[in-house]
Each structure stands twice: as structure tokens, then as C-alpha cells.
Write a structure and sequence with these properties.
single chain; 186 residues; alpha/beta; Nucleotidyltransferase, domain 5; six-stranded mixed β-sheet; 6 helices; 6 strands; 20% strand; hydrolase; RNaseH_sf; exonuclease activity; nuclease
């Protein structure tokens, strides 16, 4: 098993802005090495939390995404089972796990909450690497100017962004590895 950092590019789909009152619907994760080797992937569609409800704005957005909605509502698992399977998968990949997301503030909020709630621990500790903040440092711009439209095209592989959690995790992981390459070569 590798002993270096493994970058777990993570994307979640939810039915609202925060966990608890709202649910994580889908979790996708792609484990990458720094040199952009895709080691393994994980995906789960979760049952909603008891007593939780969709946020009206999020529900309205989902109404515009029927294919992604259908994808995240098939083969549902109980959150307890999905998060245990996720934690076990991270351990099986090996290395030192680093949570990576765009934006990490949103995705990590849900993943960390669900990990603590349903497994009692987080393999990522309390840390997440935010791609937007990393872009700000690389581009030497303000945070609000470090959006995808202002990032160099060389950072983006021709991969789809479908709002299906695993597709987006793979796409964002490749982007992160390209950013990491530029950082290390620059």
C-alpha cells in the first residue's frame, strides 16, 4: 500500500444547505495520487435522514436536473451502512488520506457530519483541502476571483460535470492533480 498522501476528491449531492435538517443524497469519491493516478473510486446513494426535508431552493434546483436526480435516487443505502462502507474503503486505499473538494466548505461539512454521526470518526481528521483556496494561491488573485472560469484551461481535462457525485469527483480530482502539477513545476 502507498504510504504517501492520497487525495480523495469528493463530491456530494444534497437536498439542502446543511446536514441534519437536510440530507446527503449521494457521495462520490475518487482516490488520486499526486501524479494523477486514479487508484479507486467510491459511490453511494443514501436514504434521507429521518425527519429531514428538502430545502425549497434546493428542491427547485433539482427539478431542473432530472437525470442527475434519477441517478442519486437509485440503489439507496441506509446512511449507517454507506458511511461505514466509505470509511472502510478509504482505509483499504491506504496512504495518508487528504480530503479534497470544490468547495471543501460545503462537501466536507456533509461528509464530516455523516462520518461522525454514523461511524464515530473521520479518517480525514478535521481537515479538508479546498481547491478554490488553492487556486487563489496559485493564481495570486483574490478568493472571489479564483472561480473556474478564471482558471487556466490546462487545469481541466475533458471530463463531464454532470451533478452525479462520482462523475464530478473524478473530474474535480483530475483538475486538482493538474493544479498540483503546476504548483510543483512552477
Amino acid at each position: 500500500m502507498p504510504s504517501s498522501e492520497i487525495y480523495f476528491s469528493t463530491d456530494v449531492e444534497t437536498d439542502g444547505p446543511i446536514p441534519g435538517p437536510h440530507s446527503m443524497l449521494s457521495l462520490g469519491c475518487a482516490a488520486y495520487t499526486a501524479d494523477k493516478q486514479l487508484l479507486s473510486t467510491f459511490t453511494a446513494n443514501l436514504e434521507t435522514l429521518p425527519g429531514a426535508a428538502a430545502h425549497p431552493k434546493t428542491a427547485a434546483w433539482w427539478a431542473t436536473q432530472p437525470e442527475a436526480w434519477a441517478a442519486c435516487r437509485t440503489n439507496l443505502e441506509a446512511p449507517e451502512a454507506a458511511m461505514k462502507r466509505y470509511a472502510d474503503w478509504i482505509q483499504s486505499v491506504g496512504g495518508k488520506p487528504v480530503f479534497v473538494a470544490y468547495p471543501a466548505g460545503f462537501d466536507f461539512l456533509f461528509v464530516y457530519w455523516y462520518l461522525i454521526r454514523f461511524t464515530g470518526d473521520s479518517p480525514f481528521s478535521h481537515s479538508a483541502l479546498d481547491m478554490k483556496t488553492f487556486a487563489m494561491a496559485l493564481l495570486k488573485t483574490g478568493y472571489r476571483d479564483s472561480t473556474k472560469r478564471n482558471m487556466p484551461r490546462r487545469w481541466f481535462d475533458p471530463l463531464p460535470h454532470t451533478h452525479v457525485a462520482l462523475d464530478d469527483a473524478i473530474e474535480q480530482g483530475a483538475t486538482f492533480c493538474n493544479m498540483l502539477r503546476d504548483n510543483r513545476n512552477g
